[in-house]
Amino acid sequence: MSWQSSYARSFEKDLLALPDDIRERALFLIGQILQNPFLGKKLKGRPNRYSVRIGRDYRMVYSVYKAQRLIDFEFVGDRKDAYRWFRHE
Question: Which of 5, 22, 44, 64 would disulfide-bridge 37, Cβ 3.0–4.6 Å?
Answer without folding.
Answer: 64
